[in-house]
Design brief:
The chain is an all-alpha fold. It has one domain. 83% of the residues lie in helices and 0% in strands. The chain has 16 helices and no strands. Helix 2 runs antiparallel to helix 3, helix 3 runs antiparallel to helix 6 and helix 6 runs parallel beside helix 8. It is globular and about 60 Å long. It starts with a helix and ends in a 10-residue tail after the last helix.
Amino acid sequence: MESIKDLKSQFKKYVIPSVSAMWVFSLYSMVDGIFVSKGVGSEALAAVNISTPYINTIFALSILFSTGATTVVSMTLGRGDDKKASEYFTLNTIVLVILSAIILVLSLSNLDRIAVFLGATTSTLEYVKGYLGNIILFVGFYIVSYSLEVLIKSDGYPHLSTIGVVISAITNIVLDYVFVLKLNWGVEGAAIATGFARVFSFSFFFIHFLRRKGKLRFTKFKFDFDIIKRIVSIGIPDCVTEASMAVVVLLFNQSILRFIGEDALVSYSVICYVNTLILSTMIGISQGMQPICSYYYGKKDREAVLNILDMGLKVVKVASVASFLIVVIFTNQIVSMFIDKIDENMFNYTVTTLRVFSFAFLIMGYNVITSGFCTAIGRPMLAGVVSIGRGVVVITISLVVMLFLFGGKGIWIATVVSEVVVLVMARMIMRSCRDEIEESKYADVRIA
């Protein structure tokens, strides 16, 4: 049985790099928006926001396999079978490469349809196509680099995930400045900058596994459909958590266009960037503790699993309160990064809506970590109840009800209401999981 001191050390070792990586990823996404807003204009910023559901969907597909793979691989390493773990790692990577190629072909051949489906208007259509058309060229690097970033933690090198993401972020920021502001390439330049950043991060992680320094390495493998199904079933909850961002942005964009007007898309773009940063923080904490929980669950060390969970819940509580206070206190400064104060009406409207929306930050962390913990201990169905609830079902119902009751103003309240409803379910599920573990009622930890 591990000591509390050792567990805290492991928790910090995995969670800090995970959160840092998510922060850097979110921040350089925000930088994209800032450069586009300052270098091109508000319509271009709205176009980038309209494109976001596609990018979230691509990222969600990577998470679908990456989270499932890291759980399966970590449990396998916990049982001491390094060879099998490497086979699962290689299989997962090859599947993602094939998936990326299919997405690339389908997306490029349907670019106009995708842009219109996402909500591109007459004034934003060319911007959306210009941005997405270039992002799609790098879709393979998007998908595979994130998988390698997550699995490098399972390999025992969590600090490398942070280094790789920082390299990517610096590349993106520098190229954004050059392509958007200096060369005036517009939204196309922002997309190309982001794509090259992904190429750099992929190269960094790929080289690590080629060097065979850790336990995981590329090796011969047998295509095992049962393992793929297992990986996918475990990854579904976290995938839905990310995909929910795509669904929510799409639903909100359409509702804003219908009930408020196109100008409000700019306000929602700012809210989306802030929400992505906060949600990414919570996901980073969840993903950081998942490999450790899975490892000790594989060893059937129930005390260690519960101690790691308690640490995660404490950190999420602090992060939730801090996020809410920072956004409420510094709302003006945050909004001014995207919208010039000269446009007084839009600036003030965005400040007001962001403050209303920020109450959701107090709750979402608990919901995310509940889903992540259920995933880590191999309970994808329970995790799915939370992630699908907050990501698709409850938020959709909440949006419809709030629109009916309050009209356009209800759009900004819907997320808070949704998180509260999901919180009730999440607490019941968390209590059930804790009771099961405390009573040592371990189901078989099934890897294959």
